[in-house]
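Give me the fold.
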Amino acid sequence: MQKQKLLINGERLKQELERFAAFGRTENNGVTRLALTEEDRQARDYFRSCCEELGMSVTVDDMGCMYATLEGTENRPPILIGSHLDSVKKGGRFDGVLGVLAGLEVVRTLVDHKIKPKIPITIVNFTNEEGARFEPSMMASGVLSGKFDKSAMMQKKDAAGITFEEALKGIGYAGDAENRLRKGTAYLEMHIEQGPILEKEATSIGVVECVVGMACYEVEVTGESDHAGTTPMKMRKDALFAANNLINEIRSRLGSLDEDLVFTIGRVNVYPSIHTVIPNKVIFTLEARHKDMEIVNTVKNIIQGLPYLGVSEGCEVKVAKLWERDTVWFEPELCVLLEQSAKSLGYSNKRMVSGAGHDAQFIASLVPSVMLFVPSINGKSHCEEELTTWEDCEKGVNVILDTVLALLNK
């Protein structure tokens, strides 16, 4: 006879998610909790109090990241569970906070059942994952992993001219560099999918194998401005028509590469933007994402070849790379453990990739890492309509708990 699985308290998880949503709740039941604001401080203070009530020690590093640790019986690198408490403006109630509360509910369940882990368990709240107040996103985990320079990040300013360093000190969460995350047995990050795939396929759990690679470019098309009513069509150098030709060519060429490739022209600026003047300049961005870096490199070659396609109608085309990232693959053994836990609990699951960035992609360079997704209704995220069912939240945290127990028994 199979032993009964240890499960979390789903009602308690729901109540805590609602409690945290009160820190910055918007009119339409969303959340605005920008990093290092008063709302963020309130959420942090409450999170700290929850952890200390469980007998956990709470430390803060120099980037404001919080580490709440349940002591283990052995002096080993901790099992880390976490995400972030900050949100975008008018964001949702689940993005980020669900991953932090997954850790809190796992620890509460262990304490409820008087289970003393042999490996310490640390819940992490990473600072400024969203980058909604201070750019870039994933700022703190980027500094911890050496991807970003701390001194430069400290001087980043918000729209009001307040620096990150000033805001961090202002809410009382400027800690010590000695407290930084440097090692761990494993890092588990649970997150809402932020896309429609799991819901569409009626699947409860996504085992995330990687955060996909991407490349982002800016394309500048330069023509000549003339009178819109007096210049014959054959004598024009219309930057907007030329840009339109390029965009159609981009869609045709990239669209035929691979069905999993996603690409977006997210910003288009037309100059001088006067209805009686032929546009003399168009600048647009183009980004593409895929897990296979060979395909990403093919995309880069196509983009870099745009000036030579012969569809520019006499206009000049320049291409500049803004930034790029390689695919970050998560620890295969941890992917298997998540998969086994989901199966043992009777939850439908599938392997998938993350098109969005998360702290786990940076932490993976420090600690063996993995991510788990739960469905987003209608794929909505970063908006007040963001929603994941309580049942799916509970299932996801049960998988995290079961995986933690598996790691403790290894």
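The two ends are 22 Å apart (CA to CA).
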